[in-house]
Design a protein that fits this description.
Elements (H helix, E strand, L loop, with lengths): L2 H11 L13 E10 L4 E11 L5 H5 L7 H18 L5 E5 L8 H15 L6 E6 L7 H13 L3 E7 L5 H8 L3 E4 L1 H4 L6 H17 L2 E4 L5 H10 L3 E2 L8 E2 L12 H5 L1
Parallel strand pairs: 2-3, 3-4, 4-5, 5-6, 6-7, 7-8
Antiparallel strand pairs: 1-2, 1-8, 1-9
GO molecular function: cyclic-guanylate-specific phosphodiesterase activity
InterPro entries: Cyclic-di-GMP_PDE-like (IPR050706), EAL_dom (IPR001633), EAL_sf (IPR035919)
Protein name: Diguanylate phosphodiesterase
Length: 263
């Protein structure tokens, strides 16, 4: 029995009538690092879904339907863990999940735990990301999901923070370990005082709440310099590394400006 059929059987046994429909295409993963720019170490690798032919995430996500979303979510988890073990990732593995595709948190997470055990990947190095702007049918359900992940020793993150209208409420309700700032807040931050003020305020708030902050979408050295000045250590973006298709890309970390090194 394949891992996919095993996952569907477990979910159906738990009463998930919508878990019978398989996802209609094969997928694979690309990996992009989240880098600690203070020392160049890797905080995490984010697993990004791809078609086996190299098709981007948008192409794959276009095939997700209400009927196959459960199978898709489980397939992404298993594939990410399998590749993380194969590539010998020693940092955290960050996996995006769809709250509306989690039938029962403990049961759905059980298939992830089984995959981690099967491939020898430590579960405590798994981090789950939920996008702030994603429509969630049941906020209480999402609260239970996040609580179950924490109970199992896994980290949680809110992705694209600042893109939606409920960011502060999400922080209060779910208290994630990591906040990933939406790239639109970072784009052009070097020439935008409003963006600098907003990002600095969020960074201070996160520090007060004991949450780490990731600046996503950093593409220029000028943006990186401002992010560093604000005090954000964790950075993700094309400037440092583009996603590697079924591989771990090499990181290029520009040295900080002389005045930042002196500080």
């Amino acid at each position: 029995m394949g891992a996919g059929q095993e996952s569907r059987d477990l979910l159906q046994a738990a009463g998930c009538a919508g878990c019978r429909t398989p996802f209609p295409r094969a997928i694979t993963m690309a990996f992009q690092p989240i880098v600690d720019v203070t020392d160049g170490s890797i905080f995490a690798f984010e697993a990004l879904v791809r078609g086996v032919d190299g098709a981007g995430a948008a192409s794959v996500l276009a095939d997700v339907t209400p009927d196959n979303r459960f199978a898709f979510d489980q397939l992404c988890r298993r594939t990410a863990v399998e590749f993380a073990a194969r590539l010998r990732i020693e940092a955290r593995l960050s996996i995006n999940f769809m709250p509306n595709a989690v039938y029962k948190p403990d049961v759905c997470l059980g298939t992830t735990l089984a995959a981690a055990k099967r491939h020898g990947f430590p579960v405590e190095r798994i981090m789950f990301e939920v996008t702030e702007g994603e429509r969630v049918d049941d906020r209480v359900h999402l609260t239970h999901i996040m609580a179950e992940y924490r109970r199992q020793g896994m980290a949680t993150a809110i992705d694209d923070f600042g893109a939606g209208h409920s960011g502060l409420n999400l922080l209060a309700e779910f208290q994630p370990d990591v906040i990933k700032l939406d790239m639109d807040l970072i784009r052009g931050i070097d020439v935008s005082q409003p963006r600098q003020a907003i990002v600095a305020s969020v960074a201070r708030l996160a520090d007060t709440l004991g949450m780490a902050v990731v600046a996503e979408g950093v593409e220029t050295e000028a943006e990186l310099a401002v992010v560093r000045t604000i005090g954000i250590r964790l950075v993700q973006g094309y400037l440092l590394a583009k996603p590697g298709f079924e591989r771990l890309p090499e990181v290029r970390l520009p040295a900080p400006p002389a005045k930042q090194r002196a500080a």
